[in-house]
Amino acid sequence: MDMRPIARPRPVAGPVTTGAKGGGIPRYLTHHYWWAYVHPNAVRVFERQWLVNLILWGCYRQLRDAALAAIGETAPGRSLQVACVYGDLTPELAHRVDASDGSLDVVDVLPVQLENLGHKLPVDAPVRLLNSNATDLPAPDASYDRALLFFLLHEQPADVRRRTLEEVMRVVRPGGSIVIVDFSRPGLLHPLRWLWLPILGVLEPFARDLWRDGLEAWMPESARRSMRSTSYFGGLYQRLVITR
Ligand SMILES: C[S@@+](CC[C@H](N)C(=O)[O-])C[C@H]1O[C@@H](n2cnc3c(N)ncnc32)[C@H](O)[C@@H]1O
């Protein structure tokens, strides 16, 4: 296991746990997403909220707020965010967690993404940045009150997606919540279904099966029973809330 500390240019927002559990950087990231997440220039280019907003057709704020609303005004106890995101979602979440005397762990397999997130958080935020694969979360069973996955699942190959969901179900306690915001398949009359999805399908090859089968198909049976779904932007996006 790689135990190098994550270098940070200023004091850390909470302790940083290091060592990428789960076998290093996955090939699908270096192969398909080097331009978006892996290369240091990717962070420089994409860490602009207006750009992320543009890519999401002006829906970043709406989707961010939908995620936060599902988490609630207060977030006491232990929260988990699986994978970093560009923009101010995590600082907003960290603020809620802090105001509720809770704590937040953010897990990402790319140190460069965790470093970038560290720059966006107040130095005294109750946040740990954990370098690990989502398929092998560094946490005991039932140890979190809630978990958030924001536009992660469509980027993962099917086996990784399935394993990530199993891991999230494992680490969230019974009665806790899992909030997922991601793509869904818009209706036949949605113009972006015919314009945008074919382009996105090239850039994001693993998203195609998600559009075909829906996120539900990837959920463990126990998650499907309690799942509540809300659509956004004519069905191009969705929020799922699962009570564990
Ligand atoms: C959450 S997704 C997409 C976020 C969205 N495009 C945005 O920035 O608003 C991007 C992050 O997922 C992380 N990621 C992808 N696969 C992962 C895995 N198996 N385990 C942990 N992190 C992963 C990447 O390293 C990257 O930081």
The shape is globular
Sheet having the most strands: 8 strands, mixed
Across the major sheet, the strand order is 1-4-3-2-5-6-8-7
Q: What is the CATH topology descriptor?
A: Rossmann fold
> Please, how many helices?
11
DSSP E strands, number: 8
What is the highest CATH level, the class?
Alpha Beta
CATH architecture: 3-Layer(aba) Sandwich
Q: Rg to the nearest angstrom? A: 17 Å
Low-confidence parts: 1-15
Mean pLDDT: 86
Ions, cofactors, ligands: which are bound? S-adenosylmethionine
Structurally, the number of domains stands at 1
As a percent range, the share of helical residues equals 25-40%
Alpha-carbon distance between the termini? 31 Å
- H and E order: EHHHHHEHEHEEHEHHHEE
User: Strand fraction band?
Assistant: 15-25%
CATH level-four homologous superfamily name? Vaccinia Virus protein VP39
Given helix and strand content, the structural type is alpha/beta
Write a structural description.
With 244 residues, the chain is of the alpha/beta class. The protein has one domain (16-243): 3-Layer(aba) Sandwich (Rossmann fold). It contains 11 helices and 8 strands. The chain has helices spanning 27-32, 34-38, 40-46, 49-55, 60-71, 89-99, 111-120, 158-171, 191-203, 208-213, 221-226, and strands at 16-21, 78-82, 103-108, 127-132, 144-150, 172-183, 228-232, 237-243. The protein has an 8-stranded mixed sheet with strand order 1-4-3-2-5-6-8-7. Strand 5 (144-150), helix 8 (158-171) and strand 6 (172-183) form a beta-alpha-beta unit. The two termini are 31 Å apart. S-adenosylmethionine binds next to strand 3.
